[in-house]
Specification:
With 77 residues, the chain is of the alpha+beta class. It has one domain: 434 Repressor (Amino-terminal Domain), CATH 1.10.260.40. The protein has five helices and two strands. It has a two-stranded antiparallel ribbon. The two termini are 13 Å apart.
């Protein structure tokens, strides 16, 4: 079974960007504030276009805003 994990640095980046509010980021990214909240809590994985819009809002690359960890599959005998 594969266990992939997507973490994000959105909260940290918001504060580094002059304490940007969740609503301000949502407006820039074209989503609701609830979407930003869910992403920060790790309950929602953004689409690739949304991940790019969020990264660009902070002036960073996607891999600085999001961290993807892929764990190898284990085969059952």
């Amino acid at each position: 079974m594969e266990t992939n994990e997507l973490k994000n640095n959105i909260r940290r980046l918001r504060f580094e960007k002059g304490e940007m509010t969740q609503q301000q980021l949502a407006d820039i990214a074209g989503v609701t504030r609830q979407t930003i909240i869910a992403m920060e809590q790790g309950k929602y994985a953004p689409s690739l276009p949304l991940a790019f819009r969020i990264a660009r809002a902070f002036g960073v690359g996607v891999e600085q805003a999001f961290e993807f960890t892929e764990k190898p599959r284990t085969e059952n005998a």
